[in-house]
Amino acid sequence: MKLKIGITCYPTVGGSGVVATELGKLLAEKGHEIHFITSSMPFRLNKMYHNIYYHQVEVNQYSVFQYPPYDIALANKMAEVAKRENLDILHVHYAIPHAVCAILAKQMAGTELKIVTTLHGTDITVLGYDPSLTEAIRFGIEKSDAVTAVSNALVKQTNDLIGADKNIQTVYNFIDERVYNRKDSGHLKAEYGIDDDEKVVIHVSNFRAVKRVQDVVKVFAKIASALPSKLLLVGDGPEMTVICSLVKELGLEEKVLFLGKQDNLDELYSISDIKLLLSQKESFGLVALEAMACGVPCVGTNIGGIPEVISNNENGFICEVGDIENISRAAISLLADKELHQKFSLSSIKSVENDFRSDKIVQQYENIYYEVLNLE
Ligand code: GMT
């Protein structure tokens, strides 16, 4: 049976926005009717689909309110769309504010709408500095009809911190394998002025402090003193100024390319030899999965969901957060050993195919929808 599904996410926020949008697209390709209810057009919604609709949440600034009422405007829009379009499911990404808004919307609409909430880790990160939101997160989780989290680590962390009376199931993130595969983009390497014999190290993030981009630069300094290499820094964010200073201080200006925000990451991964994801918090690490799908082995930190994505010594290396020496050693050993690199590269692609295939993950979400609707 084809369903009418509403999806709410932060459309421009990194991984969660990407996963929510890609899921909507793939569900639409399977014949479901998809209604994005978001504050702006999801940035990956870059193609026309006859069965994808976009409902913009408008938040007005009133002089009497100190803060614009985004949550109420969203709940109102959710209720309006749910009633008018007769939605079966509202799939929201983040417990706060989205699950809480969905619960309010359901009451406003007075329909049989079912709410599925996916946790991406941000709720838990928020809780780390603002425990005053615990009750709201618990409420959002407990009142949802089904709750998923993007890794086993996040399920555990949520249970430990929130202790909600709800079974939270892991549904891993996925990539669109039609986009993320290794391509021949050798010309790019030359265009960036990277020599054939130089190894390419890549890091992609929103440059928040939790991503520890300084560690990436420090590790790269060691790699560059051992092997001819270049570092591609992709993305932008609050740490950028500090990173630029560090690159200068370490005398790496000629070896580090600041590429800013980029869309066609598959092409950049296709000229890369290794990826560094050295975060101190990461509930999944979608960027690692994207790189692995393009045959780029990753070195990641031993936190959150990263070890569920990167298998230590099989398709990459897992090291402790901030352990610059060991991370550098692991990266250099991989870059210097052609055979090992080839083995890890193929194994990365295989792991994405086996465990994170889009059709498998989309089916898991569909099963959850049918289950809450009693349509099994
Ligand atoms: O990491 C960020 O800064 C963005 C954040 C988000 O909300 O998109 O990413 C979270 O969700 C992604 C998709 O599930 C995960 O791949 C990231 O690991 C997770 N980030 C953190 O847990 C810090």
Describe this structure in words.
- The chain has 376 residues and is of the alpha/beta class.
- It folds into two domains: 187 residues, Rossmann fold, CATH 3.40.50.2000; 170 residues, 3-Layer(aba) Sandwich (Rossmann fold).
- Helix content is 45%, strand content 17%.
- The protein has 15 helices and 13 strands.
- It has a seven-stranded parallel β-sheet, with helices on both faces. A six-stranded parallel β-sheet has the order 10-9-8-11-12-13, with helices on both faces.
- Strand 1, helix 1 and strand 2 form a beta-alpha-beta unit.
- Helix 3 packs across helix 5, helix 8 runs parallel beside helix 9 and helix 8 crosses helix 13.
- The longest helix is centred in the last third of the chain and has 18 residues.
- It is globular and about 65 Å long.
- The termini are close together.
- The mean pLDDT is 95.
- The site of ligand GMT has 20 residues, from helix 1 and helix 4.
- GO terms for molecular function: glycosyltransferase activity.
- InterPro entries: Glyco_trans_1 (IPR001296), Glyco_trans_4-like_N (IPR028098), Glycosyltransferase_grp1 (IPR050194), Thiol_BshA (IPR023881).
* CATH topological fold name of the largest domain: Rossmann fold
**CATH class wording of the largest domain:** Alpha Beta
Using the alpha-carbon principal axes, give the shape: globular
Strand content: 15-25%
Question: Can you summarize the main beta sheet?
Answer: 7 strands, parallel
Q: Catalogue the unreliable spans.
A: none
Task: Give descriptors for this structure.
binds ligand GMT; seven-stranded parallel β-sheet; Rossmann fold; 2 domains; 376 residues; N-acetyl-alpha-D-glucosaminyl L-malate synthase BshA; 45% helix; glycosyltransferase activity; six-stranded parallel β-sheet; Glyco_trans_1; single chain; Glycosyltransferase_grp1; alpha/beta
